[in-house]
Design goal:
The protein has 507 residues and is of the alpha+beta class. It has a domain at 10-80 and 164-235 and 323-384: FAD/NAD(P)-binding domain (3-Layer(bba) Sandwich), CATH 3.50.50. 34% of the residues lie in helices and 19% in strands. It has a seven-stranded mixed β-sheet. A six-stranded mixed β-sheet has the order 8-2-1-12-21-20. The active site is at residue 82.
């Protein structure tokens, strides 16, 4: 049997920003020693949406897979570190909880730590769950650590992400991509040509230049120039599940210590984010215009920031959802062209990376393959649905009744898939197992606990453990974690010593 081989010879990426240049870096890295060409078209007439981003730990793996020096990347993007998210005023006003990365506690005699904690709670121990989280304890103390020095300590399992400037990240990835052979063309796409079977064959720029390719990647933002306009791919509108439809963003001067976590603060008609970078703070207010005007949202945001504004507030409208086909014919959509989920859990860049990683695993040839496309679309849309459900969990479990926005959430019907998860957790204190899911048990436990969702009981097998021995084990682990965290440098000390912001960025 002879294997067919009809390789793609040229990729054309339309649109820059973080999504476009991450795609360019990924493909350019794969094909840097081959004849396959990668060309990115970047318009000088389109503004980048990037407003200063929080990320999640998989980004670190993505950067390392590309061979990017993490310290250099942090310096160039003015990045700081992130242990997780501090949620304020979500369950109730003046209430807060922490969602960390990594695991909380360690298994005890083969038993899941969360179940051990539940058993102790049932017996009257009111120690908070987050007292056993390395990230939560380090965040509370405003500390970071030297990773290789944390081996064989209670901090060994801690995972971190970055707060970074999205515009600077795109610029860094552009330089990286061009250095490995990616061609950059500056121009505005005015028309798109297709073959008789509906595939994209070329794009024509305002200058008159025509650029042909075998496969196209759409990174043109909400416009979806290729995936929507040229290929007429429909969009699944999830506004019924996540009704926030606008965001206002503003950058402010950094004041005080640089917190190693994102702050997400519940507001009357949505929530605000506060992301500390080394040189400034990124702030925003995600809201629903059914409950508040743009002007009111802008004023609310300005009333809730620390430091002098560095930019004029700008309002960004959006519709939560995802394309019916994120890969359609010979076009893959990424970033905002693919879909949008409000940045409550900082998943935007991850969805770009995840899409690219899966695309590489299912790499096509020039010949269309419906089997690959269908499975790819099923998996990526499944990722969006998982994240959507996790976001809805933050809202639907609220006890706030101080505004119409939060009262309406208590009456809203949640997706059936989430309803099943919540009920399973209430009955068992456990989670329905998934496949390659982003949010691992710690994440669900943290939000369930923070939002006051308590299981009916613990797993009865825990009764085989001696309660006194279990209590001593938990207390010893908690004490060791506290002592180890206390010995670490402050977040700002670590940044200044190991990865201070590149001063050239200011010039």
């Amino acid at each position: 049997m002879q294997l067919t081989h009809n390789p793609i010879e040229k990729f054309v990426i339309v649109g820059g920003g973080t999504a476009g240049w991450l795609a360019a870096a990924t493909l350019g890295n794969i094909f840097k020693d081959s004849n396959t060409q990668v060309e990115l078209i970047e318009s000088d007439e389109v503004n980048i949406i990037g407003v200063g981003e929080a990320t999640i730990p998989p980004l670190i793996d993505t950067l390392e897979s590309l061979g990017i020096d993490l310290v250099e990347f942090i310096k160039a993007t003015q990045a700081s570190f992130k242990w997780g998210i501090q949620f304020e005023n979500w369950y109730q006003e003046s209430h807060s909880y922490f969602h960390p990365f990594g695991e909380v506690g360690q298994k005890i005699d083969g038993h899941d730590f969360y179940q051990c904690w539940l058993k102790q709670k049932a017996e009257g121990d009111n120690t908070p769950l987050m007292a056993y989280s390395p990230e939560a304890v380090l965040s509370e103390k405003n500390r970071f650590f030297v990773p290789h020095q944390a081996m064989n300590t209670p901090l060994a399992g801690a995972r971190f992400a970055l707060h970074l400037d999205a515009v600077l990240a795109g610029q860094y990835l552009r330089k990286f991509s061009e250095n490995i052979g990616v061609k950059r063309t500056v121009g505005h796409v005015e028309s798109i040509s297709k073959t008789i079977d509906g595939n994209i064959s070329s794009v024509t720029l305002k200058s008159g230049e025509t650029i042909s390719g075998d496969f196209f990647i759409d990174c043109t933002g909400f416009k979806g120039l290729l995936i929507a306009n040229a290929l007429n791919t429909e969009y699944q509108d999830w506004s019924e599940h996540l009704p926030c439809n606008r965001a206002v963003a503003v950058q402010t001067k950094l004041t005080g210590n640089t917190k190693p976590y994102t702050v997400s603060r519940g507001q009357k008609a949505g929530w605000s984010w506060h992301i500390p970078l080394q040189h400034r703070t990124g702030n925003g207010y995600v809201f629903c215009d059914k409950y508040i005007t743009d002007e009111e949202a802008i004023q609310t945001l300005l009333d809730n920031v620390d430091g002098e504004p560095l930019t004029e507030p700008r309002v960004i409208p959006f519709v939560t959802g995802v394309r019916d086909k994120v890969w359609n014919k010979n076009c893959l959509s990424l970033g905002l062209a693919q879909g949008f989920l409000e940045p409550l859990e900082s998943t935007a860049i991850h969805l770009v990376s995840k899409s690219l990683a899966l695309f590489v695993r299912m790499f096509p040839t020039k010949k269309p393959n419906a089997v690959l496309q269908n499975e790819f679309n099923r998996r990526i849309i499944g990722d969006y649905q998982e994240i959507r459900d996790f976001l809805v969990l933050h809202y639907c479990t609220t006890k706030r009744d101080d505004s119409a926005f939060w009262r309406d959430w208590q009456q809203k019907q949640v997706p059936a898939s989430l309803s099943e998860r919540i009920e399973f957790f209430r009955q068992s204190g456990g989670l329905i197992p998934g496949v390659e899911e982003l949010f691992q048990p710690t994440s669900w436990y943290a939000v369930f606990d923070g939002m006051g969702v308590i299981p009916n009981g613990y797993n009865p097998t825990l009764d085989a453990l001696n309660s006194e021995t279990l209590a001593k084990s938990l207390a010893a682990g908690r004490s060791a974690l506290e002592k180890c965290a206390e010995a670490q440098p402050s977040h700002d000390e670590f940044l200044q010593q190991y990865c201070p912001a590149d001063e050239a960025i200011f010039n």
